[in-house]
Amino acid sequence: MQRCEQLQDLSREHHHSLKMAKDLANLAKKGSDDEVRQGVKKLTDYYDNELEKHFQHEEQVIFSLFFKHYREYMQIATLLLKEHGAMRALIHRIKTQQPELEELKKELADFALMLKDHTRMEERTLFPLVESIFTKEQLEAVLHFEPF
Ligand SMILES: [Fe+2]
Ligand SMILES: [Fe+2]
């Protein structure tokens, strides 16, 4: 589906998220011990360099508008925001608790599944809704978002 130009940067990041989710799921399933540990580094680098900014972008110029102006649709924003929280919590656990290898594989697999399902819901449900209800100015604010 053709995305409106104001959402194209976020959509490009979604392609990257889906690729990352697929790689992590494969590693969790078939990776050697070393590969699993490298996968953890790959995930935490990805989160620090890209995914946290992506979450904040969505929260500050998309979800927040649902709470302010489109309360009839706020259920989806609430759900997606909760999922950001669950992914942040899992990353924090992986970073700080240094789990055993088997536990790590399970956490990587869980994260991969959460990221895939979350990203698909945004692409299939949230973005079409945003395209249909946001004003031109609101869409422009999504395009020109500057993180703090
Ligand atoms: Fe999101
Ligand atoms: Fe997203």
Describe the overall structure.
By secondary structure, the chain is mainly alpha-helical. The chain has a single domain, classed as Up-down Bundle (Four Helix Bundle (Hemerythrin (Met), subunit A)), CATH 1.20.120. It is 84% helix and 0% strand. The protein contains five helices and no strands. α2 packs parallel to α4. The chain is elongated and about 50 Å long. The protein binds fe (ii) ion (2 copies).
Q: What is the compact description of this entry?
A:
This protein has 148 residues and is mainly alpha-helical.
CATH top level label: Mainly Alpha
How many distinct beta strands? 0
Number of domains: 1
Strand fraction: under 5%
The chain-level structural class is mainly alpha
User: What portion of residues is helical?
Assistant: over 70%
Second CATH tier, the architecture: Up-down Bundle
Which series of helices and strands comes N to C?
Answer: HHHHH
Instruction: Give the overall shape, derived from the CA principal axes.
Output: elongated
Radius of gyration from CA coordinates: 16 Å
Q: Main β-sheet: number of strands, strand sense, barrel status?
A: none
Low-confidence segments: none
Bound molecules: fe (ii) ion
CATH topology annotation: Four Helix Bundle (Hemerythrin (Met), subunit A)
Mean pLDDT: 95
Could you give the distance between the termini?
Answer: 31 Å
Let me know the CATH homologous superfamily: nmb1532 protein domain like
* Tally of separate helices: 5
